[in-house]
């Protein structure tokens, strides 16, 4: 895109800046629209599994429900508790929302549709996802209220615990792909099993890793059954208790943008990203981003499905799963995968 | 042009947030400013071409260490008056630390300017081997030339971790924990009995 702006007679720096801003808008605006629609989809799936109808009043089939909710929230009064630490209280939702958007910079939507095709793509994703906890901690502390504070404590412990095993899982993927570049990881999955199945997930050594990654991504985004940070029976609404109006909406949007990001990571790292599921020439006629979006929506359905069916974990069970099950198993798999790759001469 | 703007942005932000870290009265604010300083330092690393170090800085310091700092600081019940009371008493110690740090920086820059260090070149361009990405270059060095140092560091960390666990772990006999494996092994036929007692006889368990 930079070269296009340069051909209009711009200097390189101006063209680079303009094309980057265009790229950011091309990702962020559809993402916001997708978040609005995905909230509707989430509620519909959840309702269908509970034999209810879900939103069906605003617009055809209730499609405009999220926009109506957004408008309602927008018109509400912003309330800042008098005992709150004002600056941090207001920055916290901004942090959550921004961090949720930042990681999308390295997600490949197609063979060349990627905003920042950097060598350390996966490390960048890890770095950004480790920032996500700050929005929650800052909100919990700045609210100067007990329930948000408990929630922030829970959230930070939970996210640190599961990030450890996510790190080991990603190391297995990187070992097999031989690169940290997200597009490189997608391309390494082309014809990975029997030369025909695109995706690490069909690999018997990496399939357990994917299962653990899916569960960890549920914990990392604080979705059910790991939504202990907003367990309404214990903590009112968790860290968002004191928030109202657009600050609350920023949390809402950020949360769902994070969920979509985790779906996209599942698709990119284990299910072949923008590649079609099978390595057959006919399937490449369908553009890559269609496959990618289909995979994201499939994973989002899985997330909603889990939310509708699985009861919430107790906090000690959550910690046990993270530290006593996932951590040793993923550590063992790092040894097994690297040993297998060395034995078969993968790195030669 | 963009490089220069970015450098001064990151540099000014790093220095400024570092200064506010030690000047702000609320420890939680201090930690948050420290995090901003780390983040901008990572930006400076990216500008010098050390993107791997930048990512590690954010993952390790911002993502893990600073969260623990914040965790501890948030739980403290802070008495602001008492915090400022010890200033004169601790001033000599603080000054000593500052002098040591300054001496180390001067020494480091001096050794770097003198040359013969294979870190990079004194004009600021990092000397990475041609055609190698950052990660490959670091991996090649760590696992060949500095292998023993690297492994020694790993062993020291392992010992520290085991030491921390040994020191803090205590066996408590008065609590009853949940044994998940035992629960999962239970089958309905072991746990329930189906009986049809005669009227007035009752059941022995």
Automatic annotation (TrEMBL), chain A:
<feature type="transmembrane region" description="Helical">
    <location>
        <begin position="282"/>
        <end position="305"/>
    </location>
</feature>
<dbReference type="Pfam" id="PF00146">
    <property type="entry name" value="NADHdh"/>
</dbReference>
<dbReference type="GO" id="GO:0009060">
    <property type="term" value="P:aerobic respiration"/>
</dbReference>
<feature type="transmembrane region" description="Helical">
    <location>
        <begin position="88"/>
        <end position="107"/>
    </location>
</feature>
<keyword id="KW-0812">Transmembrane</keyword>
<keyword id="KW-0520">NAD</keyword>
<keyword id="KW-0472">Membrane</keyword>
<comment type="function">
    <text>NDH-1 shuttles electrons from NADH, via FMN and iron-sulfur (Fe-S) centers, to quinones in the respiratory chain. The immediate electron acceptor for the enzyme in this species is believed to be ubiquinone. Couples the redox reaction to proton translocation (for every two electrons transferred, four hydrogen ions are translocated across the cytoplasmic membrane), and thus conserves the redox energy in a proton gradient. This subunit may bind ubiquinone.</text>
</comment>
<feature type="transmembrane region" description="Helical">
    <location>
        <begin position="256"/>
        <end position="276"/>
    </location>
</feature>
<keyword id="KW-0560">Oxidoreductase</keyword>
<feature type="transmembrane region" description="Helical">
    <location>
        <begin position="192"/>
        <end position="215"/>
    </location>
</feature>
<feature type="transmembrane region" description="Helical">
    <location>
        <begin position="15"/>
        <end position="41"/>
    </location>
</feature>
<comment type="similarity">
    <text>Belongs to the complex I subunit 1 family.</text>
</comment>
<feature type="transmembrane region" description="Helical">
    <location>
        <begin position="160"/>
        <end position="180"/>
    </location>
</feature>
<dbReference type="InterPro" id="IPR001694">
    <property type="entry name" value="NADH_UbQ_OxRdtase_su1/FPO"/>
</dbReference>
<dbReference type="GO" id="GO:0005886">
    <property type="term" value="C:plasma membrane"/>
</dbReference>
<keyword id="KW-0830">Ubiquinone</keyword>
<keyword id="KW-1278">Translocase</keyword>
<dbReference type="GO" id="GO:0048038">
    <property type="term" value="F:quinone binding"/>
</dbReference>
<feature type="transmembrane region" description="Helical">
    <location>
        <begin position="113"/>
        <end position="139"/>
    </location>
</feature>
<dbReference type="InterPro" id="IPR018086">
    <property type="entry name" value="NADH_UbQ_OxRdtase_su1_CS"/>
</dbReference>
<dbReference type="GO" id="GO:0003954">
    <property type="term" value="F:NADH dehydrogenase activity"/>
</dbReference>
UniProtKB/TrEMBL annotation, chain B:
<keyword id="KW-0472">Membrane</keyword>
<feature type="transmembrane region" description="Helical">
    <location>
        <begin position="53"/>
        <end position="78"/>
    </location>
</feature>
<protein>
    <recommendedName>
        <fullName>NADH-quinone oxidoreductase subunit J</fullName>
        <ecNumber>7.1.1.-</ecNumber>
    </recommendedName>
</protein>
<keyword id="KW-1003">Cell membrane</keyword>
<dbReference type="GO" id="GO:0005886">
    <property type="term" value="C:plasma membrane"/>
</dbReference>
<keyword id="KW-0812">Transmembrane</keyword>
<feature type="transmembrane region" description="Helical">
    <location>
        <begin position="90"/>
        <end position="112"/>
    </location>
</feature>
<dbReference type="InterPro" id="IPR001457">
    <property type="entry name" value="NADH_UbQ/plastoQ_OxRdtase_su6"/>
</dbReference>
<feature type="transmembrane region" description="Helical">
    <location>
        <begin position="6"/>
        <end position="23"/>
    </location>
</feature>
<feature type="transmembrane region" description="Helical">
    <location>
        <begin position="146"/>
        <end position="167"/>
    </location>
</feature>
<keyword id="KW-0874">Quinone</keyword>
<comment type="function">
    <text>NDH-1 shuttles electrons from NADH, via FMN and iron-sulfur (Fe-S) centers, to quinones in the respiratory chain. Couples the redox reaction to proton translocation (for every two electrons transferred, four hydrogen ions are translocated across the cytoplasmic membrane), and thus conserves the redox energy in a proton gradient.</text>
</comment>
<dbReference type="Pfam" id="PF00499">
    <property type="entry name" value="Oxidored_q3"/>
</dbReference>
<keyword id="KW-0520">NAD</keyword>
<feature type="transmembrane region" description="Helical">
    <location>
        <begin position="30"/>
        <end position="47"/>
    </location>
</feature>
<dbReference type="GO" id="GO:0008137">
    <property type="term" value="F:NADH dehydrogenase (ubiquinone) activity"/>
</dbReference>
<keyword id="KW-1133">Transmembrane helix</keyword>
<comment type="similarity">
    <text>Belongs to the complex I subunit 6 family.</text>
</comment>
<dbReference type="InterPro" id="IPR042106">
    <property type="entry name" value="Nuo/plastoQ_OxRdtase_6_NuoJ"/>
</dbReference>
<dbReference type="GO" id="GO:0048038">
    <property type="term" value="F:quinone binding"/>
</dbReference>
<keyword id="KW-0830">Ubiquinone</keyword>
């Amino acid at each position: 895109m930079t070269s296009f702006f340069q051909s209009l007679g711009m200097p390189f720096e101006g063209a680079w800046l303009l094309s980057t801003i265009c790229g950011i808008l091309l990702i962020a605006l559809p993402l916001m629209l997708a978040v609005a629609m995905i909230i509707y989809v989430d509620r519909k799936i959840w309702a269908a599994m509970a034999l209810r109808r879900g939103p069906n009043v605003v617009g055809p089939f209730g499609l405009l429900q999220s926009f109506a909710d957004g408008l309602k929230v927008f018109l509400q009064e912003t309330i800042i508790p008098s005992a709150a630490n004002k600056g941090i209280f207001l920055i916290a939702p901004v942090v959550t929302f921004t961090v949720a958007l930042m990681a999308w910079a390295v997600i490949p939507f197609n063979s060349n549709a990627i905003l920042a095709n950097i060598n350390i793509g996966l490390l960048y994703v890890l770095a950004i996802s480790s920032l996500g906890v700050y929005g929650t901690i800052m909100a919990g502390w700045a609210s100067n209220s007990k329930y948000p504070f408990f929630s922030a404590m829970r959230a930070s412990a939970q996210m640190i615990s599961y990030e450890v095993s996510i790190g080991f899982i990603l190391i297995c993927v990187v070992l097999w792909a031989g690169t940290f570049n997200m597009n490189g990881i997608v391309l390494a999955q082309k014809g990975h099993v029997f030369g025909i199945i695109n995706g690490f997930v069909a690999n018997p050594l990496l399939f357990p890793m994917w299962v653990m990654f899916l569960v960890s991504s549920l914990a990392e985004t604080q979705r059910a059954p790991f939504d202990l940070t907003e367990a309404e029976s214990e903590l009112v609404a968790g860290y968002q208790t004191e928030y109202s109006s657009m600050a609350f909406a920023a949390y809402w949007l950020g949360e769902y943008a994070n969920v979509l990001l985790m779906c996209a990571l599942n698709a990119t790292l284990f299910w072949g990203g923008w590649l079609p599921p099978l390595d057959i020439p006919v399937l490449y006629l369908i553009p890559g981003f269609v496959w990618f979006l289909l995979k994201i929506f499939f994973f989002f359905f899985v997330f909603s499905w889990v939310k509708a069916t699985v009861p919430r974990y107790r906090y000690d069970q959550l910690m046990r799963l993270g530290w006593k099950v996932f951590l040793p198993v993923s550590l063992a798999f790092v040894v097994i995968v690297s040993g297998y790759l060395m034995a078969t001469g993968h790195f030669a | 042009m963009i490089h220069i703007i970015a450098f001064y942005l990151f540099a000014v932000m790093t220095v400024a947030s570092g200064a506010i870290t030690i000047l702000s009265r609320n420890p939680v604010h201090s930690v948050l400013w420290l995090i901003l300083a780390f983040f901008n330092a990572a930006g400076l690393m990216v500008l010098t071409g050390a993107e791997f170090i930048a990512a590690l800085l954010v993952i390790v310091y911002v993502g893990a260490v600073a969260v623990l700092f914040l965790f501890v600081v948030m739980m403290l019940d802070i008495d602001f008056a008492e915090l400022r009371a010890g200033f004169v008493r601790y001033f000599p110690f603080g000054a000593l630390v500052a002098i040591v740090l300054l001496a180390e920086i001067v020494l480091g820059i001096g050794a770097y300017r003198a040359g013969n260090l294979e870190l990079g070149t004194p004009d600021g361009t990092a000397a990475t081997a041609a055609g190698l990405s950052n990660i490959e270059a670091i991996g090649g060095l760590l696992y060949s030339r500095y292998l023993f140092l690297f492994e020694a560091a790993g062993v020291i960390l392992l010992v520290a971790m085991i030491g921390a666990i040994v020191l803090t772990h205590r066996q408590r006999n008065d609590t009853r924990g949940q044994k998940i494996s035992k629960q999962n092994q239970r089958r309905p036929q072991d746990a329930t009995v189906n009986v049809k007692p005669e009227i007035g006889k009752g059941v022995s368990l």
